[in-house]
């Protein structure tokens, strides 16, 4: 028993020496390198932190939202701008407002066709109406008429559909569009 007790003390002493060795050497040699390693990521992190907020300020679309204002819609599939007078500066584009009843029926026509309808002429000022050879009493000047076509739909079929939807129709077969008015 006494021999084993001595061996135990030796073992404990050796263990203590080992602990001293670990705590004595580790702090001196191995703590410094980690500090220098920590010191390097430190500046990199502080350098990255200003960058990511800067990217957040640039990317959230706070600046792009005002740049792309939602266009005024004439109806579900048409922007109001599609009906704007297309003269070259003779007017501000809106000598008259488009008749909402016409806009609604053109929208129904578009949905009936199930494909895009192209507006080639909406409202016209006096000068533009003269340029395109429109009649003096043209409904275009009041915003009560539009010229349009539907790629893939024959002029005759489009005219028939527009007529059934309650519009007065003037088909221009040679030019490939119809004039509709209310
Ligand atoms: Zn004009
Ligand atoms: Zn017309």
From TrEMBL:
Where in the numbering of this chain does the Peptidase M15A C-terminal domain appear? 76-180
Give the InterPro entries listed for this entry.
Peptidase_M15A_C, Zn_M74/Hedgehog-like
The annotated region (Disordered) lies at 33-68
Domain of life assignment = Bacteria
* Bilayer-spanning residue ranges: 7-26
Q: Could you tell me which Pfam families the record lists for this protein?
A: Peptidase_M15_3 (PF08291)
Q: Which UniProt keywords apply?
A: Membrane, Transmembrane, Transmembrane helix
**What's the protein called, per UniProt?**
DUF882 domain-containing protein
Organism, scientific name: Eubacterium maltosivorans
């Amino acid at each position: 028993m006494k021999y084993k007790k001595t061996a135990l003390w030796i073992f404990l002493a050796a263990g203590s020496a080992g602990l001293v060795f670990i705590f004595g050497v580790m702090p001196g040699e191995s703590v410094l390198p980690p500090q220098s390693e920590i010191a390097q990521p430190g500046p990199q992190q502080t350098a990255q932190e200003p960058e990511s907020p800067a990217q957040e300020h640039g990317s959230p679309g706070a600046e792009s939202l005002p740049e792309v204002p939602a266009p005024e819609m004439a109806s579900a599939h048409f922007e109001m701008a599609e009906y704007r007078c297309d003269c070259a500066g003779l007017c501000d584009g809106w000598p008259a407002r488009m008749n909402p009843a016409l806009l609604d029926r053109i929208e129904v026509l578009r949905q009936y066709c199930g494909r895009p309808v192209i507006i080639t002429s909406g409202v016209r000022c006096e000068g533009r109406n003269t340029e395109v050879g429109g009649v003096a009493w043209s409904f275009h000047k009041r915003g009560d008429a539009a010229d349009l076509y539907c790629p893939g739909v024959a002029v005759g079929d489009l005219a028939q559909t527009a007529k059934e939807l309650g519009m007065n129709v003037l088909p221009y077969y040679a030019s490939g569009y119809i004039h509709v008015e209310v």
